[in-house]
Amino acid sequence: MTTRLAFALPLFLALVSGCGSGEDAIEGARNQPNHFAGVKNPVDDFSSGSTGDSSNTSGLASNEVRITLELPTALAPDGEATRRNLRIVQPERIAIYRTDPSLQNLGGVDGVSTRTDAEGYTIITFEGGQPLAPDIVIEASYGNTRLRALASDSDRDIKINPFSEYLVRDILGSYTPGEWQAILDCADDERCLNRYA
After folding, report:
1. Which residues, other chains included, contact 99 with Cβ-Cβ below 8 Å and sequence gap of 6+?
2. Torsion of CA 111, 69, 139, 163, to 10 degrees
3. Cα 122 from Cα 114, distance rounded (Å)
4. Are 30 and 57 in contact (CB under 8 A)?
5. Least confident span in 1-5, 32-36, 153-157
6. How far apart are CA 149 and CA 164, in angstroms?
């Protein structure tokens, strides 16, 4: 037993001394510069201390959303660069429609209007309030590219980009008819919707 202890103690001490101080690591991280972009992006609200997303809802009524279309550089080389290696452009066309897990366009939505704000961004007004259920899709087109996002996004500066398209195509499209109906049935109960989020 003492032979094992005599062998283990130096090994333990060597390992501990090689690790260094946790305080040193924290101090080193604290002194490193922030590598986030120095400009506010995608619109005017990105801060260097943020996690990288934004929520530019200034000037919006509670039933309005702003559309920010972000495309890969190859598709929009002249767009404003963002921190996601995407480019911001203004959509050439916007469509708002009802859908289901088959992702078919089931027709327009009543009580919806669009306008362009002073910076050229598309603002969508939902007369009855922003949708809660995922059956309303916003589709933005730029050239030959078409991307979609859910109108029920809790961030009212809705980013339409390859990730939002993935969510619509692969996540929304994966619901069974029973799951889909359950979501629509509880759209007015936020606690119920959280189970499906």
Report:
1. 105, 106, 135, 136, 137, 172
2. -120
3. 7
4. no
5. 32-36
6. 5
Phi/psi at 66 (nearest 5 deg)? -105, 140
Q: Which of 134, 156, 137, 150 shows the shortest CA–CA distance to 63?
A: 156
**DSSP string covering 27-72, please?**
HHHHHSPP-S-SS--SSS---TTS-S-----TT--TTEEEEEEEEE
Indicate the SS3 state at residue 99: coil
pLDDT tens digits, one per residue of 54-110: 556 677 888 999 999 999 998 998 888 887 789 999 999 999 999 998 888 999 899
Q: Which single residue is written with the structure tokens 């007004």?
A: 125
| Cβ contact 83:70 at 8 Å | no
pTM of the predicted structure, to 2 decimals: 0.68
103-107: long-range contacts, CB 8 A cutoff, minimum separation 24: 103/168, 103/169, 103/172, 103/173
HSE value, Cβ hemisphere, 13 Å, CA-based, for 158: 29
Integer CA distances (angstroms), 29 to 17, 22, 26, 32, in order? 20, 11, 5, 5
- Residues composing the chain: 197
Q: Tell me the C-alpha distance between 45 and 40, whole Å.
A: 5
